[in-house]
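Q: I have 318 residues here and want to know how they pack in 3D. Can you give me a structure?
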Amino acid sequence: MKYELCSGFAGQIKNMLEHRAIIGHSVTSYQSTLANFDRFCLKNYPDKTILTKEIAFDWCNDAKGNGGHLRACVVRGFARFLILSGEESYVMPNSFFPNQKAKLPFIMNNVELENFFYATDVYPYSNNSPLLEFTVPVIFRLQYACGMRPQEVRLLRCADFDFDNNSIYINNGKHKKDRCLPLCAKVMELCIKYNRIAETIFPRRTYFFQSPTGSAYCKEWLYGVFHKCWEMSGNDTGRGYCTPYILRHNYATQTLMRWVEEGRNLDAMIPYLSAYMGHEKFSSTYYYVHLLPERLARMDFTHSDGIIPEVSDYEEDR
């Protein structure tokens, strides 16, 4: 955490973040919000070390826009940790959290997909990162072709690729679920070409998509590059905010649509898609089914058999 915690809750916040990291839970969603909570307490309750109802509600009411719900969720999680640690704390009742309607995934149409991948192909060269113009077209095509989560494609290691058997091993995915993903030969050839180029710049690298510092690219980098490609593509931004996660959403919906068009039994096929995408429950995969009816006539970007969609060619000498 870049911000130095200074309030009376500083030690407790650090303990919570360390505990979450140890048990394998993400701390990213908590860090920035708890840092803001620390600043708030330092300013308004500098001598307090016990999380009271007054502090919790004051903190949530201080939010702007729709930020109150996020603040309430985080401070409730923090309070529950304190209780489990044997400390006194006020835990906001669960009834204070109305069920929020999930936002529909951003599903790209054929033109938007083509525009986006063309933008990745013409991504500008960088003197500070000579591999960048080759990395951008491949990392997003690979994520889309396999329906991977953004963090999964970022953290791929060279050892995870089996070029002989056209497969990728996802190590320590969400919910601690490992899985092996078969790829079509066309997608693997894309990766092999990229690997040859990357080896000339970063010999014996650890990460398949390795940054100039020798580490994996961070989340902020992936999101920043994605947004730049989206802007370069000329695609409409009026339908909502886009993130790299939409490539995973598009993979799922297009796979299901192809199965519908082929007359396959979705109930029989869903378990295969669920396992391929690393879903913990089938319900997570079934979520995409309700998106199909209005899009059956419009989505025709992929035509390949199986569950691996086609991707545009990547020219090594472009």
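Q: Anything worth noting?
A: The chain has two domains: 10-96, 110-295. The longest strand covers residues 167-170.
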